[in-house]
Amino acid sequence: MNDFQRLPDLASRAVGGSVVAANDESFAERENLVKPSAPVFSPRTFGHKGQVYDGWETRRRREPGHDWAIVRLGMPGVVRGVVIDTAFFTGNFPPHASVEACSAEGYPGLAELEEVAWVEIVPRMPLRGDTAHHFDVAAGDRFTHVRLRIYPDGGVARLRVHGEPVADPRLLAGLPVDLAALENGGMVEDCSNMFYSSPNNLIAPGQATVMGEGWETARRRDDGNDWVLVRLAAPGIARLAELDTTHFKGNAPGAAALRGFDARTAVPGDEAAWVPLLERTRLQPDTRHRFPLAGGDEITHVRLDIHPDGGMARFRLFGELTADGRLALERRWAEPAG
């Protein structure tokens, strides 16, 4: 796994990504590009367009040119890496591809997107069939859309756009905020175990529809417990926590606790710097728990401890941004990290 793949997929349908346009989809639908699931293939499965492919496939071109698809990112942000996956496309994959990105205001249509400035983030590169191709991205701007170009035609199973979400501070001003949410800029910095699934699932948008859309650890055979450390979107004061074990029945944690930390004034190794937010509290399986929090301290990080192990669908941390937090979001919006 490339380092950037530990970051969320900003283009995934699971976080609101959408393929808003493509010049051709004669054999397989463009929407397949952003499906969160891994591609699958059933040989000799034919529909009215021929062999069914779990990807985007264009017709064979008989004239000059190339094909393209535009994806609106579900979470606009700084792109760190792209995966172009030609899984199961063998005699019909594109020999080359490139990726561009842009930042557009509001909710533009295709005509408006054609007028904005696009930046090449992956130059034209050779592709192989039935292969996941990984490309690091150096651009540090905040993008809202990406455009995949394939040369000249063919099929791509999935397009993954990994990066760091950057929230629009204008949409959060004066409102209660989920300080931990991915779409607001929260990020998992560390965890004890992610055997079954990524801890970033905990803070993803929306509700988990199946167990696999949450975070689940391996079974512990010692006296310890599992945990996850979340860097908040910006400094804030946490008021309410939601610990959701929906879909986890025989494998929900027995209990959980929360502590906060302000990285601006202390170092994580200083145990005295951690602020208790929620004492160890019993949890029920398949339940959406909500707990008011103690304290009122400004924090930049939160640690969720589960006892002893298990799975959780979602973690929410509602509160308000501090003045420093609002300024941090505004600076990040104006000058995303390079």
Automatic annotation (TrEMBL):
UniProt keyword annotations, A-Z: Hydrolase, Purine metabolism
Enzyme class label: hydrolase
Domain of life: Bacteria
EC number: 3.5.3.4
Start and end residues of each Allantoicase domain: 16-165, 185-321
GO molecular function: allantoicase activity
Biochemical pathway: Nitrogen metabolism; (S)-allantoin degradation; (S)-ureidoglycolate from allantoate (aminidohydrolase route): step 1/1
Pfam families associated with the record: Allantoicase
Reactions catalysed: allantoate + H2O = (S)-ureidoglycolate + urea
Entry's family note: Belongs to the allantoicase family.
Family annotation (PANTHER family): ALLANTOICASE (PTHR12045), INACTIVE ALLANTOICASE-RELATED (PTHR12045:SF3)
Protein name from the UniProt record: Probable allantoicase
